[in-house]
Write a sequence for this structure.
């Protein structure tokens, strides 16, 4: 048997590797607060749970859920997009449901033929699933350098026409995990014009888009009229629903949506209908993400003030629930990690997201207010 090369290479998903480290530290009796997971530990928007319970109680016979999502769910997503962005989408041709966005992100390269040497373009610091999917499928990847100088966004002017011609799928994630960088509308427009010129698809992962602390909400492809984007939206962070597995794929490109629907048919089945029924109550309400953001902003202020008191430089932090930072005394992420472990905090080394993360680290603040206060106390004491 010849196993998949990428699986044999011995990569461990960073969460698994850090959790092993956490278990070892705790086994030594160390009191460590783990700040590595972007998985909110505060309650789900309550009407969701009530609606799921009621829907489940009314479900006497449980059958396979529809792969592309039930009509009522797709309509709720369309209504949200109309309310929130003033954009009309056809639920039958322009929206699909997904079991959270992670699996859909992994599968999307299967839409294309890669036999002519086409590439997937991925920012050099990224949510690891973009790379894992490309590498598992044996698709060439081009890593787009990110740095503080580029504002942690790929510099679109730095690539030649020959390079662009090889791009078939471009991953962009704004607000960005891990750096919190925000692409503005002009950036998206420029990228979409390049996609039109060089014939590629912009996969826009917008799962943190409704948790923001700026006056204006972050830009979204959904506001830009183009058949060149496929948007991934998720209820996981917006509505504290990571455990429910609900998201949506949206595109003006009917062929992309049709083929994605076809692709996903044999892969699995849709999210259970009673979960979709609960999820509708989340899509129907725009206020609770704003309320969640008020709490996150408070925690961000508390912890980033403490990080700065310890001498750290904190970048961005205008959206999402991550703090991306460095320290003038630490050229390596491992040194940062060690310093924080000494203070009783487990953070994610920037290198978990790509080699351009060396010297940086990510801390999540999707924790309770009480934990955030303790994190701030410990962070202020970090010696580097
Ligand atoms: C950038 C990014 N995209 C997608 C996901 C997947 O989220 P979900 O599958 O819960 O929708 C995450 C989760 O942390 C993420 O950080």
């Amino acid at each position: 048997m010849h196993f998949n090369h990428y699986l044999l290479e011995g990569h461990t998903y960073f969460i698994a590797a850090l959790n092993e480290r956490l278990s070892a530290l705790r086994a030594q009796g160390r009191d460590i607060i783990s700040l590595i997971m972007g998985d909110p530990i505060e309650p789900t928007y309550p009407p969701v749970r009530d609606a799921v319970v009621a829907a489940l109680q009314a479900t006497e016979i449980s059958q396979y859920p529809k792969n592309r999502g039930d009509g009522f769910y797709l309509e709720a997503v369309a209504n949200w997009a109309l309310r929130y962005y003033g954009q009309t989408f056809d639920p039958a041709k322009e929206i699909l449901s997904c079991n959270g966005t992670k699996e859909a992100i992994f599968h999307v390269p299967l839409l294309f033929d890669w036999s002519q040497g086409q590439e997937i373009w991925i920012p050099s610091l990224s949510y690891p699933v973009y790379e894992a999917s490309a590498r598992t499928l044996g698709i060439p990847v081009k890593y787009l350098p990110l740095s503080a100088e580029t504002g942690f966004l790929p510099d679109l002017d730095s690539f030649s026409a020959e390079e662009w011609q090889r791009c078939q799928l471009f991953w962009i994630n704004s607000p960005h995990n891990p750096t919190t960088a925000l692409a503005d509308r002009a950036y998206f427009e420029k990228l979409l014009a390049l996609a039109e010129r060089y014939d590629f698809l912009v996969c826009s992962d917008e799962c943190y888009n409704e948790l923001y602390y700026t006056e204006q909400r972050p830009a979204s492809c959904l506001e830009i009229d183009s058949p060149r984007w496929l948007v991934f939206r998720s209820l996981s962070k917006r509505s504290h629903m990571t455990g429910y597995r609900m998201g949506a794929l949206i595109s003006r490109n009917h062929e992309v949506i049709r083929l994605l629907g076809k692709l996903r048919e044999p892969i699995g089945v849709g999210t259970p209908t009673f979960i979709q029924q609960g999820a509708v109550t989340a899509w129907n309400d725009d206020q609770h993400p704003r309320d969640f953001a008020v709490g996150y902003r408070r925690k961000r202020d508390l912890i980033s003030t403490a990080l700065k008191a310890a001498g750290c430089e904190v970048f961005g932090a205008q959206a999402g629930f991550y703090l991306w930072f460095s320290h003038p005394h630490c050229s390596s992420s491992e040194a940062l990690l060690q310093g924080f472990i000494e203070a009783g905090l487990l953070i994610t080394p920037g290198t978990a997201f790509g080699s351009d993360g060396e010297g940086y680290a990510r801390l999540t603040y999707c924790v309770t207010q009480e934990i955030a206060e303790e994190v701030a106390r410990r962070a202020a004491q970090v010696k580097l």
